[in-house]
Design goal:
205 residues; single chain; 434 Repressor (Amino-terminal Domain); Jelly Rolls; six-stranded antiparallel sheet; 30% helix; alpha+beta
Amino acid sequence: MGVEGKERHRDLETGAQVLSGNMGKTIQRLRKAYNLSLSELAEQSGVAKSIISQIERNETNPTLATIWRLSQALDVSIEGVLASADEEPFIEKSSKADTPILVSDDGKMRLAIIGWIKTVEWLQWYDVQSEPGGVLDSDSHQRGSVECLSVLEGEFEVEVGGVTQQAKAGESLRYRCDRPHSVRCIGDTSGRATMVCILKAAVMD
């Protein structure tokens, strides 16, 4: 192999490593956005836990079949998994089909993840839609985390540490979410709200 051939080979290897690294970060962000452990993602995708861990740490180059299984489990296109940060457009559009949905245990409340996946480790925001009586029970987030629920339609109630507060359309509730908390849609009508969670926020007095 001549000098030119070696340089070409080196460029290809470098490009592959960058692409693999970006993919690993994307998969990790998506997994955390869904609050999935490695074991849970492995179960849903059919990809071994050890392989997923290696992909996230950029220690292996997965096959196309593996990438496809992970993209299906994480509700994102293969293009979305492979997209390089340097190639992303200035204006990024997400379709309804590409928006991940979380559902409460009672099946009455749905949270569309509308926040940017790259901020999921410190800032998360959701479009919340609920049937009357829907309840979302959440475990504690990281210490110092704060959540803001801005009601657009209907009426919601938030309970944290035995303290309960209600809000109607046009009102917002801000509360510590580093302890177990519940969000309920109260009244006889459906409700809609925007929920923003700031992880590791300054602890409120």
